[in-house]
Each structure stands twice: as structure tokens, then as C-alpha cells.
Design a protein that fits this description.
about 375 residues; alpha/beta; 6 helices; about 25% helix; single chain
Amino acid sequence: MVRCGSVWFRKYGNFIDNLRLFTRGGSGGMGYPRLGGEGGKGGDVWVVAHKKMTLKQLKDKYPQKRFVAGEGANSRVNALKGSRGKDCEIPVPVGISVTDENGKIIGELNKEKDRILVAEGGLGGKLLTNFVPLKGQKRVIHLDLKLIADIGLVGFPNAGKSSLLSQVSHAKPAIADYAFTTLQPELGKIVYNDFRQISVADLPGLIEGAHMNKGMGHKFLKHIERTRQLLFVVDISGFQLSSQTQYRTAFETIILLTKELELYKEELQTKPVLLAVNKMDLPGAQDMFHVLMNQLQNPKDFLHLFKKNMIPERTVEFQHIIPISAITGEGIEELKNYIRKSLDEHANQENGAYHKKQLLNLQISNTISYNEPPPKNGVTSPR
């Protein structure tokens, strides 16, 4: 953990947000035909949520990623009813979605000690099975973190997200003058002086066509789904992926990022978004920033410059727009304060909406109970 100005930042390496596991319930025990004895049922495999667990810890502890429950005991003369096989529990973090090999959701674990049965043990041998035990259920499951961070850094390659992360955290992610220096999410936490913690995910750079699975494609966009809010990071001087691709201004970059999110999943546009305009240390940056602000305040006046299929259905309304320089540190403290402010504002709104919904449900419930006629066959007290 390293000190940075008024905050601490904790960085996690080799971040993992999904795992594929093999599970198998235990086989049942043998029955005892001559005396009608029943074999014990095989143990079950459960996925159980633990607050202090991570998928990386799970992978490191069980590198084979195989989880098999215990077998049921055989029936015998001195124990005609065989004992049950031992259950197998897979410890996972809170906030996990469990799916099968076909992508069907088995269940979700949203709080500590939540548990889901993923592979059932086989029946022990009994009359019904001609005293032959059944094998346990085999199942390949996928564990996916539903939420990986409070804030997700979103931008085209070379927008300066890694530089911004290093400025905020004094961490040392790979930084270079070429695209795709971040190939997997880097997760860290800003810890403020009052011990408030905000998690930040530096996500791989997006490119045009990501919704069609170009570049990091769907994997990148899946990470965006798992953050509470988004922080767009754009280069004030614009962006060009390579000499073969078209140059994009900062405004065009914002419009294209918005369109990629919309094409992948419209719901992503409901997330609160902040905008960090990076590289304000460059010559002429202030003039370019004034032009950009004018374009963002009147976006419809400039959308005619785009091809029709590049224009999003709705433009982003940023919670806050902060000019920064990840090189000089300009605007970094303001950015951290706005991140915290935005999260707090929306947490209060969500709590208010939740309480209103609860109150409405209570009022509807009371209305229904008042309007219900008394039952014809009422319960009478004993004489």
C-alpha cells in the first residue's frame, strides 16, 4: 500500500474476475440386498459466499479447479443404513453469479453465507434402484464477479488511463507510446484520510467495433457492466489507433465511446459517468478544451459531422468534467474529490428511491388488507 497526497491506494496484481470449475457430487453407497439395507447418499457440492475471499485466492488454493464431494457409505450388517457422504463447499467472494456451461444462470450470491447447490450427490443403493448406487451429478460451472469496482476507467488505448492510475496511486502499470499497454483489468482502492475506500478498475483500452468483439471486445465491455460508475478518460489532442486508421478529435472520441457502449448494451448508458480530459499539459490544450466544452454543451450542433451509424441514440450527460494532466498532476485532487462526491450523491438517490418503493408497497398492502371482506368461516375462540 502506498501513500499518495491525501489518500492511500492499494493495488492488486493478477486480478481475476471469472473462473471455470469442474464439480461432481459424491456417488451413493452400495445397498445390502439380502437384508434390505440402503447405501448412504453421496455428498453435494455447494458454492458458499465469504466476505474475505477472492477468485484469485480460490484459484491459488485449488489450482486443479476440481471439486468432488464424498461418497456415501455402503450398507453393512452392523449399519444397514449407510452414512451420507461429506459435502464439498467451494468458498467464493460475495457478488458472484454462477452459470452452467451453456450460460444458464444457476444462482447468485449477494451476501455472506449465501449458498447454491451446484452438483447433487447420487442416491445410495436401495430397493428402488435394485440396491445399485447412483453416481453423483457432474457439472462444469462458471463463476463471474458481478461487480468488480466502484469506478471503471473507460477510454481508447493511449488515452492515459495507466498514467492516471500511476498518478493517483504511485503504482507502476505498463506505460508506453503504443496502444494496448493494459491487457487485463488492474484493480486498486483509493483509501481517504477518513478511511473511506473507493475501488477503481483500470480497464483495457476500447477500440471502434468492440461491440462486434474486435480488440478486447466483449471481455472489455463485460468488465464495464461490473462497475457502479464510469470515468471516461480522453486525450485532449484526440486519438489515432494507427497510421491506417482515422484520426479522431476528443469530441469524436467521446461520441464513439458512447456508441460502442450503446451497441453492446443500452443499459450501460444508465450508469453515471464522469469525464477526465487528460494531457492538459500539451501546447494549445486550453484552447482545445474550450472547443470541446462548447461541443459537449451543444452536441446536436456537431452531430451532422458524423456518419448516421456512428451517432448514439442519446448523448452522455456527464456528472462532472475535470481537466487533468496525469504527467504534471494538474486536477488530480479535484478528480478524486468529484469521484467521491458522485458516488455519494447516487448512493443517497438509490437509498431514497428504495425507501419510497418500500413505503409504496406498504401503502398498497394496507389498502388491500382494508378492502378484503372478513372470512366467512372465521376462527372462533374456544368456549
